[in-house]
């Protein structure tokens, strides 16, 4: 279809019609300009059957608007800066582990290590719990965290049914999430809320901000992120314990795997391209020297080449290959006779845009300079969509980027990485995993810089 210069095409999944976008400009219109026609995602939501299905990612219509406006202020740059020290503390165990690998000439599976690292971060910042996954890979939090993703054919089938035939879940009262996973996270959140409220515990993390929302304390939106103007957006509705648990679960589910994969692929590319690794290390060391050798929020925000490396990693390896929207109001495509009827699913193929030589020449090459200001000029903004775009773009983008930056800064200033021969190249990606994942892991060598 692309070779025929078409901007869109269509297909069916069973009886469900789907509209597939082939043009970034049309993506911009659907995700942003004409968003009022495409406000919903296509995920299953039923708070009674599955309490953890009713979170910001899947809520629809006015429920989504209310929740988004309430939660948006918790993800501003000011709140990220507030959480930074809590996040940074999680790098201590990461550095201890890396020191051990280097001293004993051990290779390591980047997939596994960065999963455990980001579980520790999300557990600490999201739930106020020291998970210690880097010390104990079999910790309870790690066990249920990984089970939440439920790799395997049955879960993949359920995920597909929840998108293309969500009414079946309602009719047969089937929860998408495992009951034991729901119980674990629900009990964890409720116990954390109870302990903090009874003991007046204040901690610089996401859970503290959720407690403020529960108690109807207005959180300052210090940079107006995600402002949505609607007649009901100002309604004062506090969050219940169950709703807080659902949002904390989303924070965990969407935060640990995606950031772990980005770190994994970024370290793989740096280990495969030594000149890029050295250039990034030099930037890290030079910037940190200005801050007395300390990794601070301002320091990592100053690392511009690091941002280019992360952006290029997300281009080449977007955690999810595409995003969906549902047509909520009958829509006529501009300058055509094409009508998109209500309830048609819209697919925006992120991975296809990211690997299109029209926007990224030689797309399989890892080249951070694609994201220099000069090279970005003239390239369509919607040709890079790892976090989506428009009002329903990923609300946790800043936190995700901050996790990755801290991981890179903590390790690259003192360690050098190379690809071990155990890594299977080219990658075979796991078709049963929710996110883009190398089936056989990515194995790296590490040595300490003298």
Automatic annotation (TrEMBL):
Record CDD domains: CYP6-like
Topology of this chain in the membrane: Peripheral membrane protein
Main location: endoplasmic reticulum
One Pfam family it belongs to: p450
Any Gene Ontology CC annotation: endoplasmic reticulum membrane
Coiled coil: none
GO molecular function: heme binding; iron ion binding; monooxygenase activity; oxidoreductase activity, acting on paired donors, with incorporation or reduction of molecular oxygen
Keyword annotations of the record: Endoplasmic reticulum, Heme, Iron, Membrane, Metal-binding, Microsome, Monooxygenase, Oxidoreductase
Subcellular location: Endoplasmic reticulum membrane; Microsome membrane
Cofactor(s) the protein requires to work: heme
Superkingdom of the source species: Eukaryota
Residues holding heme: 394
Family affiliation: Belongs to the cytochrome P450 family.
UniProt protein name: Cytochrome P450
Organism: Ignelater luminosus (Cucubano)
Origin organism lineage: Eukaryota, Metazoa, Ecdysozoa, Arthropoda, Hexapoda
